[in-house]
Please model this.
Amino acid sequence: MNFESHSMTVKLWDRSTTNDELEAAVASVAQRANVSTDEVRVTRSGPKVFTIGLASDTL
Model:
């Protein structure tokens, strides 16, 4: 897991935990950025790799 300001990149190996892990990552980014989870975007950036960050930073 990498952290860059208000974003993180995660690599998820276990498909059965993907939703739970992504929800936790979204909640973490939202809390650190002091925004609602609606303002956080999840982008698939590779096989089993997801980038979670503020929607305004990813536009």
Remarks:
- The CA atoms of residues 42 and 53 lie 7 Å apart.
- The two ends are 22 Å apart (CA to CA).
- The beta strands are 2-4, 7-11, 40-46, 49-54.
